[in-house]
């Protein structure tokens, strides 16, 4: 009964999304206040219905209802209850349902948060979100129904893909999707502004906290995925430029450009149509990411589901959504002229460079990701594009970006003089050079050409991003959260640059063949292989090795990497053992029995690799702090006071 | 300079930057794209010796050989029309097995052996890389071959 109830709830949610979309967009257009008043109840009703549907599917998973096709394909009686719940988003259908649930959550948050916005504008925002929700619900019901029944039911399920049975991956999709879906809010604000034909600095102030919050979630989600790939896939890398990773990275790059462009729109009333375009682009890439990953279009590790039959629907939906938004843009953007000017050395110019460089980076990633698909479709042969392409092209835009950052955050709006902050800039630069040399030549022995450059830029960003907050603090002036958040996020980027530089320059990895009792030396560490024992878990068995690691005779740790064989899918997975020691991340993975009593082991030492994920966390925290700035809390605004902004946009 | 000319200069500068980036990206692209070949293309001599490429196919049953206690491993990759012997040194991925799809990255030596620096077999046991599936399907008509997969 429950699955039918879930499906019924989804159909009701579809209808309510339609109501929300229609009244939200048509109401303000025709000036019907009673239509506008109907939007919020529709939002609430839709959220309740979607939550009911998700609840029904979770109940089917927990209750092992293998008459539901999706449950049978992704769960098993031996699966621990925690993973039975997270199996909800283990494949395509459930992921879409999760997407819809998160969209409903964001929509409710927007409805609550916009209670004080002009009612017409709020209705338009909710209406656009209704259109998005309607499209996704229709897609789910028409092509990817998670409540489809099996007749006869399966006696037991096919089990969740073993590599997904992991705590980090259990929470990775919800956080990543929260970020993806959050950009729908920025998209809806952009569309609402275009429908209204009016965009002022107040608009930017409303939009900023939502966009920054979505960006913070996306940052966390990408970092979690990278962390998971590092320890679970057993290859020991943190980023592979895999199509799926790129699919989540492109909206991040464009979203980062968006939050910076929004800053200019808020403070100076400039870059208006550019900001709108970025909002559309970010959400389009988010949708593209969702669909590309789960539809199996891209050949990749993560494409668990492969069903090209859904492609036509996806394509049609994307064309309608993105094409519609761009058409609206072409029609309305010319109304939104910005009039103010700025000098070359002003902060506006630096933020413009930031945007251009981020868009170049996103474009090169896009080109590399799509090239294999395009080359294949045109019959030019099958190609693969990997790190040899992505690393240098990405560096090309990131080097100037990180180099300009420190100067940019000390520049002034409108005026191109740097005189006030010249001293602080020079001092931080000198301090950064000293610290970078100490790091590169003192702690680590050698390096490549780019090693000191990366270390210098990273340290400089960290030092310079706190100059202004510290100066204010010493003068006893309050540091606004927006500024504090920016400093935290930028220092996170600095940490990331340093971590990436050391990891790329000083990583050591070896595959070795060892008999029990034998040892091998990598860097300053000695790895002694103590043998292999049988192990057993709740739904797997396998082998566990013991490796004792010492450094200069002193014990560091005992590593216990495993090789697991899951019973239902008979899939082998490698459970690496990872420890931190003196900032070094030591990874040991168990290979296989080589015969003659020897086993293969993979040993890696990556300095500061954990700081990559830590840096992402710091950046996300910075975003959260900035989004919570008091400035964004909306005091009562009536429609009459809105167009009071100085650079009045619409005529 | 008038604001108008300054803005023009800015736009020209950005365009210049973008085009330089574009040219550099394109050249990186030409140099760093790895091509994929199947064993029949290798047999037909379409692959330059010594150039890196990706070889895809199935691991032939019963061909995985290892000198006991050593990381050196040899196996044969087939598309059921032609075979290519592969040699690799290192830890094989979890999903590598006989009769399963595999993609190896490396170079062809002059003796016809493919020297792999990387073996990719990342997917589940039923999965076949689409490129492998396609080339197997294409070769199926040409070769009388065993009923593959």
Would you give an account of this structure?
The complex is a heterodimer of chains A (651) and B (149). With 651 residues, chain A is an alpha+beta fold. Chain A folds into 4 domains: 1-165, no CATH class; 169-415, no CATH class; 418-507; 508-607. Helices cover 61% and strands 12% of the residues of chain A. Chain A is built from 19 helices and 11 strands. Chain A has helices at residues 2-30, 33-37, 39-62, 69-74, 81-86, 92-113, 119-143, 167-196, 201-232, 243-268, 272-295, 311-332, 347-377, 387-408, 422-443, 450-465, 467-474, 481-506, 610-627; strands spanning 383-385, 508-514, 519-522, 525-536, 540-551, 554-559, 562-566, 572-575, 577-581, 584-595, 598-607. In chain A, the strands form 2 sheets. In chain A, strands 3, 4, 5, 6, 7 and 8 form a 6-stranded antiparallel beta sheet that branches. A 4-stranded antiparallel beta sheet of chain A has the order 2-11-10-9. In chain A, helix 8 (167-196) packs antiparallel against helix 9 (201-232) and helix 9 packs antiparallel against helix 10 (243-268). In chain A, 53% of the residues are buried. Chain B is elongated, with a radius of gyration of 22 Å. In chain B, strand 3 and strand 4 (72-78) form a beta hairpin. Chain B has 3 helices and 7 strands. In chain B, strands 2-4-5-7-6 form a 5-stranded mixed β-barrel. Chain B has helices spanning 3-32, 39-43, 130-142, and strands at residues 33-37, 52-59, 65-66, 72-78, 83-89, 101-108, 114-120. Chain B has 2 domains: 1-33; 36-142, Beta Barrel (OB fold (Dihydrolipoamide Acetyltransferase, E2P)). Chain B is an alpha+beta fold and 149 residues long. In chain B, 32% of the residues lie in helices and 30% in strands. The model of chain B is unreliable at 123-127 and 141-149 (pLDDT under 50). The chains are: A alpha+beta (651), B alpha+beta (149). Chains A and B meet through helix 13, strand 1, helix 14, strand 2 and strand 8 of A and helix 1 and strand 1 of B. Strand 1 of chain A pairs antiparallel with strand 1 of chain B, so a sheet runs across the interface.
